[in-house]
Amino acid sequence: MSAMILAQGGATATILWIIAAILVIAGIVSLLRGSVVAGIVLIIVGLLVGPGGVSIFG
């Protein structure tokens, strides 16, 4: 049972990394296109969603 929980935690972390990476990349693209506020917001949200040290889910 605990192995199943650990596997779900790993899958969740992977999904969060993917979402965070997409948000940060979208933020960088927004910055390059001239939308500074939207780019900064997307990058910050991407950093908050990611399962790293500043994750809002951890």
Structure explained in plain terms:
The structure is a single chain. The chain has 58 residues and is mainly alpha-helical. The protein has one domain. The chain is 79% helix and 0% strand. The protein has two helices and no strands. The longest helix has 32 residues, at 2-33. The chain starts with a helix and ends in a 9-residue tail after the last helix. The model is unreliable at 1-6 (pLDDT under 50).
Helix/sheet category: mainly alpha
Overall pLDDT: 79
Gyration radius from CA atoms, angstroms: 14 Å
Uncertain stretches of 5 or more adjacent residues: 1-6
User: How many helical stretches?
Assistant: 2
